Amino acid sequence: MAVFFVADEHYSHHNIIKYCNRPFKDAVEMADALILNHNTVVKKNDVVFHLGDFAITNKWEDAWKLIQRLNGQHFFIPGSHDSWIKKAPTKSSVVILDRIHEMSINGTHIVLCHYPMRTWPKSHYGSWNLHGHAHGELAPFRNQYDVGVDNNNYYPISFNQIEKEMEE
Length: 168
Fold this sequence. Notes:
Blueprint: E1 3-6, H1 16-19, H2 27-41, E2 47-50, H3 60-68, E3 73-76, E4 95-96, E5 100-105, E6 108-113, E7 128-131, E8 144-146, E9 157-158, H4 159-167
Parallel strand pairs: 1-2, 2-3, 3-4, 6-7, 7-8
Antiparallel strand pairs: 1-9, 5-6
């Protein structure tokens, strides 16, 4: 089982293609490409943390249709545009986390949030801040990494890949 992180997919958001200069003709082509990329690297039993701005919709059903097409077990942190999260049924297989979530993998303390932070819990002790929202436009800061699709060739990024990035 591998652990992946991703943010800022912006499913169903037509204007994000223009705003971020994404190489897709429309939101349908973008969704199909992001789902294909996701399923290429994420396997059925892998864990995926979505760090905000998953889908631009007010309807749980629309988000659920997308989630069902994606491999992995999914955990969501709300972003700027995730109004669908408020309508998620409590008995769904989708786990909604707080806006800031702390976890540890292989002894590495990780703070997840949609937004990049200047400081974060245990930042002076080597913890990481994984975030989205910046769409690859912010220079890295200490142990911080933008897991958004615009910063990672439109793919989720694994813990192991981020660990290599942090070593550099």
